[in-house]
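Researcher: Good morning. I'm working through a list of sequences from a screen, and I'd like to move beyond sequence-only analysis. For each chain I'm collecting a predicted structure so we can compare shapes side by side. This is the next one on the list. No need for commentary yet; just the structure.
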Amino acid sequence: MERQLERLREAEPQQDNYEFLLRWKMEQSRKRQGGTVLMKANSVPLQATRQVHVRMYTGPHNWGGLAVPGWVITRSWHVVEPGKHTHSGGGVLLYIREGRGYTMNNGVRLDWEKGDLELLPVARTENEHQHFNLNPGQPCGRVAVRFWPFMEAVAYETRQVENAAGWKGPVGQDLFRPADFVSPNALLEGPEVQPDGTLLDDLFVRRNRWREMMAKARWVVKAKDCVVEKNRMGLYRWYVHPSFTDVVCKHILFWTHEIPPGSRSGKQKHQGGRIHFVLQGRGYTMVDGQRYDWDEEDLLMLPINRGGVVFQHFNNNPGAPALMLVAEPNWSDILGMDLACGFEQLEASPDYR
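Model: Good morning. Structure tokens for this chain:
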């Protein structure tokens, strides 16, 4: 009888792929909602690498615990000559935190100084580059900003060419540039297309316009060329904006935000996903009613939540300004500025004209 009952017992329901996807999306949402919003600089280890000394704030090693996964944010220093490496793809933004020097990228010299933004273009072959310090004995430093979903789309990869002077770690030969790092496909070109009015050929016309624009675009955005803008959020200095057509990278919006002593920013509702690296000062940010206190070199991330987030920055130092580096993916032309929550200005900064 027991065997007969066992045969009649209904089989356990199997989870289908649709249910798996539903549960996976719920889990990702839960992780973001409970993820880290503020990373204190003193909690991020300083590491000597074969390239430079670096603090890696965010990356694949901790995405699962962050309110905003996908960013790769590093803070680096070098005094002596750093290593030399090469990238397929591209799309890296390098904000010069301190120092003065230049970069050799594919044989092109790019001069920079504190406050400038160096852009690593999306190249069909590779970006082989190395940084040089023009102030011997004084450190050069930068904040590197990458957004992985864009980089994965261009098959981004980094390989080493030379290790930094004084590197005493393992050789790591598998990390070095192989002879076939640039694929033969990357060099393949077809005949010039004479547009025939089809929508397919419209894509080639757009390609040609993009190439012409990139050939004349800036690889370094100089701080002195970025006029301070008084707007509803406060004092901005724009480096990359959707309306700019003369920069080699437009996939990440980039600006600095200054908050005068004892003042505050405007208040916004935003989808989230925006990052703030504190360059100077101390203060706090209110995010959906929760307070996050920050100091110099901390990283603040606006969570990606259903319905968005409401936030406002405060400089609680009456004697000095606060300055933040700010970046977010440039979704404007593909997903819109509202995204899924609406983009709203709820209150203007007292510093707005």
